[in-house]
Amino acid sequence: MRQSSGIGVLDKAMTVLHAVAEQPCVLSELCERTSLPRATAHRLAVGLEVHQMLVRDEAGVWRLGPVLGSLAANATDTVAEAAAHVLPRLREVTEESVQVYRREGAQRVCIASVEPLSGLRDTVPVGTVLPMTRGSGAKVLLAWADPMTQRAILAESVFTERQLAEVRRRGWAQSVAEREAGVASVSAPIRDASGQMVAAISVSGPVDRIGRRPGSRWAADLLAAAEAIHKRL
């Protein structure tokens, strides 16, 4: 379900990295997780080991290597950077929690978040991993995903293809008690300079306060914030 670059060996190598990132494993487990032939999985893992992206202990267990930490330390997340200039204003307008999510395979990850200064809140720290099968943020990320990813995730989702079509039509999504009981949210797509959807921006809060139709309250402000981030990108 991961996106394809069209470069087969690179995509397979990334599949190996993600499999080891989920949990350190021996070669047989790596083959099972990636569905790669044993010889292919071993060749890729050894190649990644040479570049210190993976390391292997005496028991043959593969783990993430030190070079990944070095690369991450110098990485810049342009979407999160752009969002940091916009989210505080959206929080001020809505007085609710605001997040930005990016899809990673069959999950979504919070890459930016601000919380209201007081009162009950829907706290989602940066780095939180959430499912792609429920919630307004998931709907937005899936609505503009590739058809293969949509089919795979929709099979286990609480929403349908018809609902995703509605999200694409109106440009935003809402949910009530899908991700968590008592929480409602509304989300919109963030697009990069080329117009491609790269993340979802969300406003969330207690249903008792935000209401069962959060889109009617915050969709316009949310779309304006998404556009502001788009211009910064």
From TrEMBL:
- Which terms does the UniProt entry file under GO BP? negative regulation of DNA-templated transcription
Q: Which organism is it from?
A: Dietzia timorensis
User: Keywords assigned by UniProt?
Assistant: DNA-binding, Transcription, Transcription regulation
Residue span, IclR-ED domain:
67-233
Under the heading PROSITE patterns, the entry gives: HTH_ICLR, ICLR_ED
What does the record give as the organism's lineage?
Bacteria, Bacillati, Actinomycetota, Actinomycetes, Mycobacteriales
**Protein's name according to its UniProt entry:** Putative HTH-type transcriptional regulator
Q: Which PANTHER family match?
A: HELIX-TURN-HELIX TRANSCRIPTIONAL REGULATOR, ICLR FAMILY, TRANSCRIPTIONAL REGULATORY PROTEIN
> Which superkingdom, per the lineage?
Bacteria
> In this entry, which stretches build a coiled coil?
none
Can you name one GO molecular function term for this protein? DNA-binding transcription factor activity
Which residue range or ranges hold the HTH iclR-type domain? 7-66
